[in-house]
# Entry
Amino acid sequence: MTVTTIDYIQVDDAAGIARDVTGKMYRIVTVPEPVLSSALLATPGVSSSGTSQDVTITPASGKTAYLTGFDLSIPAVVTLLGATMTISGLSVADLQFRISALTTGTFIQWRAPDGAIAASAANTAIVLHVPAITAVVTAANLYGKQL
# Structure
């Protein structure tokens, strides 16, 4: 594999061009990121013993929700066990996370890799579904924004 490094000697931001050491011209394109409004924190969901829970971010009318992350806390369990959490309502396929409940307790914190993942459409809620995990009380928070 060959890697070529190009050193720019002249950059003209106003014209959107750059010139490398050989004189070759390159176009520079700047793509602004959308400005997201203030954070929405979904109501924390706390399951009772042995029941599932859904935690939801619901955008205001005409707005699009964006998922920025979640966290999940599971107290210590008697024996190791696994479960699959699902986040639905996204512009990408549903996200699934395989979790392991440990005998010492489990805390999971996840943040969207590019800062935020959009909902599939305006007015669409984003839902984190946490399945029942034996007889322990789990706490989940879902974080997001709207635009």
